[in-house]
Structures are given as structure tokens and as C-alpha cells.
Amino acid sequence: MPYSEQHKTVLQAVIHEGALHEDRGKELVIRLFDHNNTAQILSEINAKLQPLCMTIKRINCEITGELYWIFMSTVQDKTASYVSHFSQTELALLRNVYSEIITSDNSYVSSTFCLNLCSSLNAKLTKTDAELFLLEMVDRQWLYCKDGKYYMGVRSIAELLQYFKDTYEENLQICTLCKQELFYGDKCDKCDAITHVFCLKNYARDHSLGCPNCLFSTSRQNLSSSNTNCAMDVEDASQTSMEIHEMAQSSQTRKLKRKHKNGSM
């Protein structure tokens, strides 16, 4: 099928959301193409994006296992630099949160600890402003928050992986099953092998419950599949490209009202 306005609408929806929940993406594809073959549509879009070194990647949330579509560069920056409407101080806080998540034994950091990090920043950032900033990072899928704890968000995993590899090489772990880097997973009490929660659930469907590495029986954490922090719904999956463009413009206008300087990671 030739690349069309419908393909552009899907692409613009992903760009607008930052991380588009797969259920929303499937709704959009069904309305626009009268079928649910999302793999075909993403493949056709990615063929157009390839010369631009961009792609739409499907990635699981490490906490819920839910899939998201993320628009990202295929050439990742080792320094994780990007233009943002957030201040250098806010981005310094985010770097510190990343560091605490990756180097902690639990692969998460408490919200209280995150706010206390404000005292270590070179420039002043109130705890109120820090909390609002971190909540926005959750809304944008850079972080995930559950029960007062911050975990790595799907956008961070997709877009900043090379930065994490170069900065925290000795701290990153590999999933026993998919062999990809992970930040949060289920750890075997016997052999210390670590596995994505969603990989382990898929594995358990066809195998006896236990560690994929040593078969030691272990009780997996009962994580809810409901995601209260999922990406914003596309209000009407049949909306046109112009409508999505207007939504993006409105969002950009709201961003510009924040009186922050551009910053980089």
C-alpha cells in the first residue's frame, strides 16, 4: 500500500503523544485503514522514516508490560542531549533520579528521596516545583510512578538507552529471556538471574513457574496490569491530520508559557 495521509495521521499521533499506547494505536489503524494489521502499517511508516534515521519502536513498560509506540532516532546520542523547554536545574534533577534508579538495588527511587535531591543541585529548585516537574515527566512517559516510587519510563528506555549504556555500563543488567537491557525485573533468589516481568509472564504460559535460568521456583511480584499513567488517549481515532496538528500546536503554546530556558541532558 502506498504511503498516504492516513499513514501521516498515525505518525503525527505518535509524535504528539510521545509514547502512544498500543491499544490507542490499534484503534487509530482500524478507523483509518479498516483493518488491525498494525505491524504492516508501522513497517510502511518506518520505511519512509529510515532515510531520516528515525523510526517508530514498540516497547514494553517494564512495570505493566503494556506496549507503547515511540517515535525515536535510530542514531542515539551518547550524551543524551536534546533541546527542551525545561531548565538546566530540572534536567539535572532528572539525571540524578536516573542515576538513583539505575544504581539502586530495587531499581526504583522513592518520591521523598527524589525531592530531597533538590538540596544537592547547584541552582535552587523548590520541592513544589520539583514535584510538578517529576509529575510531568511521568505524564510524558519519561518516568513511571507507582505507590510513591519512580521507575524508568518507556521513553527513557527507548530514547536514552545508549546514554545509559555509556554512563552506567557496569550497573545495567540483561534480561534472562529476551537478552535486552532492563532496569526493573524479577530477580531469582537462588541464581540472581533477572528477567523482565512481562517476559517471565509470557514464559510461564508455556513452562512451569520458575526461574528460566535455574528453574528455581519463585513467587513473582503481583504487579497490576492497569496503568494509571498511560499516554493521553487520542480523543477520536478518526480525527484528521489537521486536528492532530492543532492539538500539537495547542500543547506547544502551553509549553511556551512556562518561563524556563532551553536545556540539555
UniProtKB/TrEMBL annotation:
**Annotated coiled-coil segments of the chain:** none
Alphabetized Gene3D superfamilies for the sequence: 3.90.1150.220, Winged helix-like DNA-binding domain superfamily/Winged helix DNA-binding domain, Zinc/RING finger domain, C3HC4 (zinc finger)
- The protein's enzyme class: transferase
Q: Which GO terms describe its cellular component?
A: chromosome, telomeric region; nucleus; Smc5-Smc6 complex
Q: What is its EC number?
A: 2.3.2.27
- InterPro entries in the record: Nse1, Nse1_RING_C4HC3-type, WH-like_DNA-bd_sf, Znf_RING/FYVE/PHD
Localization in the cell: Chromosome, Telomere; Nucleus
Give a GO biological-process term.
Answer: double-strand break repair via homologous recombination
Question: Which residues are in the Non-structural maintenance of chromosomes element 1 RING C4HC3-type domain?
Answer: 175-214
What are the alphabetically sorted keywords of the record?
Answer: Chromosome, DNA damage, DNA recombination, DNA repair, Metal-binding, Nucleus, Telomere, Transferase, Ubl conjugation pathway, Zinc, Zinc-finger
| Any one Gene Ontology molecular-function term assigned to this protein's record | ubiquitin protein ligase activity
Name the major location: nucleus
Reaction catalysed?
S-ubiquitinyl-[E2 ubiquitin-conjugating enzyme]-L-cysteine + [acceptor protein]-L-lysine = [E2 ubiquitin-conjugating enzyme]-L-cysteine + N(6)-ubiquitinyl-[acceptor protein]-L-lysine
For this protein, the record's Pfam families field holds: SMC_Nse1, zf-RING-like
| UniProt similarity note | Belongs to the NSE1 family.
Assembly behavior: Component of the Smc5-Smc6 complex.
Q: What is this protein called?
A: Non-structural maintenance of chromosomes element 1 homolog
Q: Which organism is it from?
A: Trachymyrmex septentrionalis
